[in-house]
Structures are given as C-alpha cells and as structure tokens.
Amino acid sequence: MNGSNITNDHFSLKSVCHEEAIIFRNNDSSLGSSLWGQDVYYKYQIKDAAELNKIYNATGGASWIKRQNWPVNSAITFSYSYSEGINYVRGDTLLISYPPPQKDTGIIQLRVQEIHLNQNNLTGALPSLQLDSLKVAEFSLNAIASIGNLQAPKLERLSIGGNPITQLPVFNLASLKQLYASGCQISGSLVQWNTPALEVLNLGYNKLSALSAGLNYPKLKYVDLSGNVITGQLPFWNTPKLEYLHLGSNQLTSVSGELNYAHLYYFNIGNNQIAGNVPDWNFPAIKELTAYNNQFTGSLPAFDFPLIEYFDFYNNMLTGPIPDYSWPELLYFDLSNNQISGPMPDLYAPKLKNYNLYNNQLTGDLENLDFPDLEGLNLANNKLNGTIQTEFDFPKLTVFLMQNNSLKGPMPYTYLPEVTHFNLFFNELTGTFPDAEMTKLVELRMWNNKFDSLPDLASGAPDLWELSCYNNKLQFDDLLPKRT
Q: Does the pLDDT at position 284 exceed 80?
C-alpha cells in the first residue's frame, strides 16, 4: 500500500488508494471481506457530493421528477443513501487508527462513476464540474439550455440529446468515446475538439451549418449529422476507422471524391442539393449507399461493391446506361426518377428483393430479370420498345409495375402466386394473357394492349376488386367465370 502517515501519541492517519471498482447500487453498501480485519469500523463519505449538489442547485433540483436522497449528503456517516440516478465507485480509503482497546475507523470515500438523469425535468444551465472518476454522464431529454466546462478525465460517454442547447463547449475530454447530442439546437460549425478517443458522434437534428475540413479523429467510427442545415462540401476527414456516416437531410452541394474509407459500411447523403458527377468511391465494405433527392448528373461509375445490400439514387438527374454490376449481396436497388437511357442492365444480384427503375428512358427488350427472391418490381414509365425476353417466374413477387412502355409481342411464361398488384397498361402486348396462378390478385390493370383472351380470373382470384382491360381485343365472355 502507498500512502503517508501522520502520527502522534494518540493516532495515525494513513491514506490508501484502492484501484478496484466496486459499484454501489440501490442502498447496497456491502464491501465484502474486511480490508483490515475484525477491529475496524467502516464509515462512508461521498467525496463528490459538492459537485453533485452543484447540478441539483443549478438545474432546479426541487422540481426534478425523481430526486430521492437529493441533495447529496457530504458528511461522514455509518451508512450512505443512494441518490437517484447516481452510481458510485470506491475511491480512496482513510484509515484512522486508535490505540487498543478502541477499534480503528475506515472512512471509505465514494466517487461518482455514473450519472443517469435522463427525462428528469432538469432546467437552466448545467454547471462546470470536476469529477475525476466519472465515466458515464446522461442528461438527455430535459430542458438544459447550456453546458459548462467538464473536467472529467475518465469520462467515456456523454449524452445530452433532446435539450435546447445552442452551443457546445470546446471539449477537452481525453477518454471520451461516445457523444450523443441529437435533437438540440446546436448551431455553427463542427470543429476539432481534444477528444482523441472519440468513436461515436451523434449531432443529428440540430442547426449546424458547416463542416470544418481536416478534422482529425483517428478512432471515430460512427457519425450522424443528419437533419441539420449544413451547406457547402462534404470534405475529407482523417477518420480511417469510419464505419457509419449519415449526412442525410442537409443542404450539401458537393462531396469529395477522396472519401475512400476502407471500413465504411453505411453512407447516407440523401435529401441534399449535391450536384455534379457521382464520384468513383472506393468503399470495399459498403453495405448501404443512399443518395436520393440530389442533383447528381452523368453516368454511374462501375462501382466495385462486393458487400452492397442497399443502393438508392432515386430522384436525381443521372443519364447514360446502368453498368452491369455484379453485387451478390444486393437486396434493394432504386434508380427511379432519373434520366437513365440504354438497355436493361445485366445485373447479377441473386438475392435482390426490390428493383425500381421507374420513370427513366430505358429502351429495347425487357430482359435480365433473373431474381428468384424478387418481391417488388417497378419498370413503369420508361421507353422499353422491344419484346419480353425473360420469364416472369417470381414466386415471391407482390407488386409488378411495367405500364407506360411500348413492349410488343406475347407474354412469356408467368408464375406470380403472391402478386397483388399487376399493372401493364399502355403497352402493345398481344395474344393470350397467361394463367399465372395469381390467386392473391387484387388489382389488374391491362388496358390499351392487344390481348385477345384472359384466364379465369373471376374464379381464380377471389380477392380481385379491379380488372381494367378496355382497349384490347377481348370479348365479353372472356370476363365471365369459366364453367367446369
């Protein structure tokens, strides 16, 4: 044991530091085995009581929803009371030794390790605090208007989201790993803090307006800045471990082509104002890339995304043909509402569930639909003017939209047992409409084609409520149930 002795004829005082962390919860003041044997009385002192009471006094503690055992007692007592929302760790222990026959006294100093005061009606300003053992501080969903300087060298998680805070201090928190401050009113620019251990940064849905270039957070993995008013360019940061980057619903106008993050699996820049060509990003770990509602132009690069599952560039101004991607893990592919031309791509995606090329300028044959797990298919509002060169063998498909094209010729083999909505109006399809075993069909819209016969839809699809088939070559008998 380390420490110093102060002695005279009556007593000695030894200060001993115990490193092991013992958390006290729910009025449990058990320490297990005796530190010095049978002849020691134990007392307690909450060393950080004054700092805790600063929080209570500055944030309207008398009006807190949960305030059991607040204010915190700073006196030396034979037992201590657990204050609502506070967890302690054993810090220094003072041993006051007396000559026999008296028993020695051990004063166990309790230090604050966790503060949990979420949703507790805290108001006003959170004061400056010095809490040397604090690791977790949670003040979310209150009415705190500002935050003072925090001196907490061991603090790892700080949660202040859902407060009307307008500005953050320049944090100097060497151990901070997680900062949650979404849903506040924080404005200005995201700047460099002295938080070298930072891994998670959530400042979504604030009023941030700018991003500083060259931010250096070497351990940062998760960034959520969505729902702000950030303008200008998304710059390059030194964040080599970045895995998650969400900047959706801002006002960004450009994005750096240097964002080559080896570990990035989620990248969302949807609902911004980003213009220009799509950069040829190198994201070998990417699983979800979302860039809808922007102003991207030009052709898509031939991305090499072997792990991609979700790819969304809906509602841009993309042109040119779609590359023949080979993405074996792809589940969702949406390029609708663009100006893409050329033929149907030869997309290798055996797990694809949703395929949306609605409202583009695709031409040629309808082909390359080898997707056995497909659940939604939208090819409507294109300029497909060839024939159907693929089978419609989709046992899981529920919605099939291919209207407003100029497809010609007969329908292929069709098997759609789960389909509920099937639209193919405004084409030039001919011959017999196939018996596709559409027993769950609710809506079939096929007007303005050249079909000359129908299967027994009236009895084969009991939930059918709309069959629109005018401007074909059908007879009235084609609409009646077939007699057995």
A: yes
